[in-house]
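re the bet — no i am not wrong, look at it urself. input seq straight from the record:
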Amino acid sequence: MSIQALRIPIRIVFYREGDEWFAHCLEFDLVGSGSTKPVALSSLSEAIAIQIEQSIEHGNPANLFTPADGRLFQMFAEGDDSTLAHGQLEMRFASVVIEDAELREYTGTNRILAPAV
């Protein structure tokens, strides 16, 4: 099964754990990390590229749409717009285009990454 042309807007939330920055894509539930936000975004970009390339190669569009946990959507909703340019993540593949990425930074002290008990 081939993947039809797709244009996918994505949302990314940045957050810190200790000295490490994380960039988490909500639509694909993929994460990149690094010592700075740009490094984390670059790492995430690589993960997204691999996911898309493998999904295209194996004709598995369902593999593209595995959303993150709701807690990360909440972090995104509570986050501030990121100072990184939104266009930094434009990606084009044979049948998939990531042309718009909304970036936010979660700076709240109320960590919601741990599962609720």
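see?? The first helix runs from residue 37 to 57. told u. also The longest strand covers residues 6-17. so pay up
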